[in-house]
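Issue 218. Parser rejects a valid record. Input:
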Amino acid sequence: MRLVVVGNGMAGSRLVSEVRTRDPHIKITVFGAETCQPYNRVLLSNVLAGSSRPEQVRLIDASWYAAHNVEAAFGSAVAHIDRETRHVVTEDGRREPYDLLVLATGSEAIVPPLPGVERAIPFRTLDDCERILESAEHARRAVVIGGGLLGIEAARGLAGRGLPVTLLHLAGHLMERQLDVEAGEVLGETLAGLGVDIRTGVSAQAVQEDGVRLADGELIEGDLVVLACGVRPITGLAREAGLEVRRGVVVDDELRTDDPSIFAIGECAEHDGTVYGLVAPAWEQASVAADVITGGKALYHGSRLVTRLKAKSVELAAMGETHLTEEHAEVVRFSHRARGTYRKLVIRDGRLVGAILLGESDAVGTLTQLFDRGGPVPGDRAGLLFPGLSSAPVTENPTLIPDAAKICQCNNVTKGQIRACWEAGARDVAGVAAATRATTGCGTCRDAVEGIVGWLCEQEGISV
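Output the parser choked on:
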């Protein structure tokens, strides 16, 4: 069988490796529009901040493809799908036949139609990141347009390099999709304390040589302008081929499009009315699609989203229905703005359906597990928000975490899998990561994995 994958980003590269793990013989060809090997887009903010080098965020080593008999065509964009003959055609005219085709084309940065917008640099790809860093070396001041996840990470990264930064956001508070008003305001105050000038409720009118002109005529000075105005699924290829496209390429529970020989996964796919923009759902979809492609039975039932902000000195996790009020759910809230702390639980029918944790918190692991499993919430609500104050044992203690608890959200790795990996000989985080991929997504589970491995070693009297 001939499998062709269009897109070699985080979803496409994961699918290729998952399929090859299951079937060593299937012929695989993957086309990637970018000229470089796959990289972890989630960690680009670390590259921007200087805590990681570009080569440290690579997902697959270039030698992997030859070693696993996979043909990878870098810098080769697919321009057309011929469904009648089952071929894809690249921009340079290559025709590649397929029996099964997977679209993993991802998303593209939204570039608003502003006068002079060509002077700005989107923050989406590794090339974008390197262009921003090159410009930052000579810039006196930066302006970031967009106060969502990427915009905040870009602004914090540039400020951490000593560059004065102004962050512009159209909505009344930052990350309005994930955060309620007070959480957005506390986040803004935290960023302001780290050197980012926050301007919410403002609209950019034009990008000029000396900065960004607002709709009210004010000029926000800056000789480096970064765009983080959101992303949109890349669906043109599917639409031109006559596949059903709404916001994304519509797929069923097997991740098939309305053409049963074509699948779609990741940020370009729309499942049950939802397009997911995070890595964990893309990797879950890759696993399901790989099972189906190699003859197994698997269904995708959607993902429970946990958003983590990856910015130095800013701790934030948001999950689920964070905007529900007391009219529709039980809401438990704590705020200490002077310390940059905001914690909120949203509970409905005895289950945790949403949470916001801003500022350093030892409750993240417990709440993420509760949210992910959908289990009943303990009666001690204060103990959930402040585990150290509870008379009950802290759930994050490795001894008390059940084996079924998911430790790595991005890669769906449980404590039991980490234990099994340790028993098979992995004695450090690197060994666990190599075997399970835990810590290789957003990286926020690293401390938890380290704690479990350390605890296992301690139980057996093994020094590492």
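Fixed in the parser; the record now loads. The first helix runs from residue 10 to 22.
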